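Worked problem 6 (solution included).
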Amino acid sequence: MEGFETYRLQALQARDEFQTIASKNQSSGLKVILTGSYKEGFPDLSKSDIDYMMVLNSSDGCINQEWQDMLFKEVDHHSAYLTLNLPSEHLSTFQRTFPFLSKHLLGRSNNHRYISAEKARMMNRENFLPEFDGNRLTAEYEGTVNTSGPAYTLQTEAGNAEVDRVSCLACHGWSVIANDWLTRSRQWPDQVVVDKIANAGFHVVPKVQMPDTGNDENESETNLSMQWRYSFSVAEAILFNEFTHKQQKVYYRIRSLHIQYLKKNKLMKDILTSYHVKTSMLWFMENKDQSYWNHDICSIVKDYLSHLAQMVMMQELFHFFIPSANLLPIKDAKTLKAAALLIENALEEFSKIDGDHYGLMHRLHFLDLQVEVMQGPSTDPGRRMDALSIVSYCNLELVLAIMVQLPEKGTSIG
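Solution. The predicted structure is:
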């Protein structure tokens, strides 16, 4: 079996396992969604976090278009960010319509009411939901120190597994801020997929836009409390599910180059994230017709790297669904030029690829490794597992990281 085929087999198996965990922990008051690289089917199996979104308004229902028009307000100069402001004349109606959000997430500043991003983050950190009552680990866990970020990171005592848990609010339909995406000229995806995405809904997560240096401290505190960010993780997963086999192999190599080559460079680590790579790939694919994919993989990767280098050089990598939002950090021209050169030089690294035995799977060194493990309840410590089984075993170990009970304090969700 080729390295890529082996990788995909294990990646999809892991996705099914983690999806099952989410499904088993659904309840009338909570919906859990698997997101991120495992959901998309392209994790770095040895390093990728397992990402879950906890839908806090599951019991209340999605925020429909009428309420979106009423609540959502774009943050100045940051179109991917928003605040959820509640007009006072609609307070009583909101409380009847969204009793859970009203009880747990409403904030107040003077006479102003809003849905608090800070309270959503606190709930995520302090109230691990009682519906998650499966296998619980007793090891210590560490939360993220970045209190402005949406994720709470759970880590095993051994440090071999991480789960990023993000609270979110589910929204019905498609976001007005991203309406242009539905109708813009494209080669990919086709209209059937666009319609599917438009009907799949979207989310907002409690993530603050990092303030510019010198911003007023009070303004930063206000942003921390009020700001949310649009999340189109469901739409992105649908798009990845539309990749052809060849497109999957291309993206596998691109992801591998980023993880094994670009990400290891200190300069690139500060500029180019895995989200940037994913977004630039989607832009690249949108402008290519089906005949383009008849080219050989090496030529396609070369074209992509040139495409990415140009984006970095011009400092213009825009959000795929909200192109008014530039994703790249502000850097000087000299730094951007150096980064673009590194991207172009990645083609030399690509030329070292030994067939399909390279990339995200290769990093595990499982293709030529046998180890002794204790599997499940077995008392036989000498049970040997082959290369494929050990990956599955590790995935099952990672699953245990989800089943955690944090100290009970604050208001539990029931």
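Discussion: DSSP finds 16 helices and twelve strands in the chain.
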